[in-house]
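Write out the 3D structure for:
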Amino acid sequence: MVRLMVCSDIHARIGHFQDAVVAARADGPVDAILIAGDLQMPMAAIDELNLPEPIHLVHGNNDAALKPTHPADELVIDVAADGIANVQARAYHEGASARGDGIEHRIMMTHGHTYRAPRLVRLRQRAAALDADVVIYGHSHRWQVDAGGPSEALVVNPGTLMPKPGSGRCTFMTMEIDGPDVRVERHEL
């Protein structure tokens, strides 16, 4: 089984991010942390936390503090039974290599603003072009899980670690991938 912590739209709230990591670990080890954009601070702030988990992130529309070449606009993450097998950094609309043997799921992660999120049509079209069966996006600050139709990708949004005053709590998710099953769990701070 592979267990991922997924968050987005941190907007420089490093304390909220730290709290989310601790909460995600409370239910078991985390194999990797995925951030769907809008970190809104230099990557050094995350690096200083010295987290043991690998961190994979994409640019958001508010990430001018990040280097233009890191992170990518999109990531294609291949998941095998025993962990993340491959991570491909992509520019918008750039293709990806074919899935290799033993890859059970392919995750496409993007911030979503380029695809007019939270509308899902373009996100699902891009997922189909990349042969992805899971899409992670942010941008809207709204928790979402949409399974779609039988041949469509599962589309998820972990919400935000920076809620607007009066709009609710910080949300993030854990994603457990076990063979053909992909389970997401909502967490609030």
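The helical segments are 14-25, 44-47, 121-130.
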